Amino acid sequence: MKINKCLDCNIKSVAAQYLSEDELTHLQNQCASVDFKPGEVIFKQGALSSNIIYIKRGLVKLHIQGPHREQIIKITKSPKYLGIPTTIHEKINQYSATALEPTSVCFIDIETFKNFIYNNGKFAYEIVVDLCQNELKTFKQCVNRTQKQIKGRVAEAILFFSNDIYNNDEFILPLTREEFANLTDTSRESVCKTLNEFHVDKIIELDSKKIKILNRKLLETISEKG
Amino acid sequence: MKINKCLDCNIKSVAAQYLSEDELTHLQNQCASVDFKPGEVIFKQGALSSNIIYIKRGLVKLHIQGPHREQIIKITKSPKYLGIPTTIHEKINQYSATALEPTSVCFIDIETFKNFIYNNGKFAYEIVVDLCQNELKTFKQCVNRTQKQIKGRVAEAILFFSNDIYNNDEFILPLTREEFANLTDTSRESVCKTLNEFHVDKIIELDSKKIKILNRKLLETISEKG
DNA sequence: AAATAAATGTGAAATATCTTACATTTTTAC
DNA sequence: GTAAAAATGTAAGATATTTCACATTTATTT
Hints:
The structure is a homodimer.
Chain A: E1 2-3, H1 21-29, E2 31-36, E3 41-43, E4 51-57, E5 59-65, E6 70-77, E7 80-82, H2 84-87, E8 96-99, E9 103-109, H3 110-119, H4 121-147, H5 150-166, E10 170-172, H6 177-184, H7 188-200, E11 204-207, E12 210-213, H8 216-225
The structure holds a DNA duplex (30 and 30 nucleotides).
């Protein structure tokens, strides 16, 4: 755990770009940078929430323990604030965050963060915008998850990694089949079957965790039609 | 459409309670109060978004047109801001809002609202808190919807109306069976069957739209176990 | 390097839910 | 007040998905 130099940080959030030199100096004293390996828990559902997390580098899953299984509610990469909803106005974390790839995060003191909202309107506005876009994404995701059937949900997840995370037709899936099932709201077995079906139909190339999109058009159609 | 007197308004939002007299005077000139009957659309998915909505009185459903059916993503009663996510930083409404009961709302000019966030830290903070709590609720709801089976989801919806909307064991369901299905992510027929099952099992009393909870404990168990 | 644990693949049976089809009731419009 | 439209109820067959059971591969530990 080392103290980070916020003033010189070149991976600031949009909101933090509106902080003054004085505010950044203050942040520097109330903020710690920590590294996580894949699989390591950043914060845990049920634990006391005390810091806002800022992902500087890496990939993280947010997950909730549901009545029947673990559910991945969101996968998010840097740069991004994490856990604002579960820290502001909540004593206990309502969900967990776990690193999927080597990840560096800043732990920001909640009072410092609150004071920025109180005293810096541009910072506050950017945080509001970020929260709003989160909610819109969550709505859409919820509609997708509940209305599409498995093929559509798996296709959507593949496109998500390709478009939103790796910007590449080819990527290494950062999840086990079990986790992929928790993301697509289905069973491990159904994920295996569906991925292999896509493989047989030459929609994707599949070599354990390596996925390459071969027929993007068709994948998009499957994702949209559900 | 009449101009509302914000200064004298006794159903201000928590955030608006932090507005100064000057700010309220300004709001008064940039804000219009409108009444809606049940079934009337307040704003529509796909239309240009231009105002923040504040529900002064009534009950509203937020709904999205999904790939296969209409989905009710949220039911919310006064006092509450609506459509912040779909108005801030978005040009087009990402979802619709429709009145379920006689409803009065204020249309607040987006620039006025933005300026309050920029210039009034306490107002901004309350908006952030509200958005955070929305996101947490949406997460939980999404987990419930995707993991529970029909009985659990219907039980949950009945408890929602009883606990969160009407604060009463007995209430008139403000939805058709079709809408109830759109809320619980199932078909109209399955809703009918499940409600009648609960009725036969003496968990609820059911007379078309009138519902009375007879066995709350059991209903809660069904809701939790899914 | 061997042994153990974890992850993955695959088919068949079990099950929840949807769809279809139609009867009945309630609401709305003229 | 009657006709038309919308909403509701109910059963049976169709279907998507899960669960179970087990084989196989890959990773981890000693």
